[in-house]
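agent> step 3/5: call structure_predict on target 'Fur family transcriptional regulator, ferric uptake regulator' (Chryseobacterium soldanellicola).
agent> reason: downstream docking stage needs a structural representation; sequence fetched in step 2, passing through unchanged.
tool.input:
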Amino acid sequence: MTKRNTKAKQLILDSLKNTKSAVSQEILQKELGEEVDRATIYRVLNSFCDDGIVHKILSDDGKYYFAFCINCSGKQHKHNHFHFRCLECGKIECLPNEMDVKLPLGYKSVNFNGFISGYCANCS
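tool.output (status=ok):
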């Protein structure tokens, strides 16, 4: 079964591509207004995550944010990097440096969720 590209999917994808930071479902809802309902945004974001189009970030504020994937292929996410939330402007960014966390013998990493909060270059 192939997934079809709907208007809602395209609007959400365009929004994610055009932003320079990670966004929450709530932020997307405000941006898209009445064009796409909340449940559709939630479903599409999770579908994009499963398909390797976006990655999901759990912030220190307890919300999930979604960022457009740059170097991922298919369902293979490569996101061993920290995320940064500015306490002043609220912007959430993927920091560019990949991290190599050495785990004990026998352990296998599936997900990495490193998070830092502070003040971004514009707000500090």
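agent> step 4/5: record observation. The two ends are 49 Å apart (CA to CA).
agent> proceeding.
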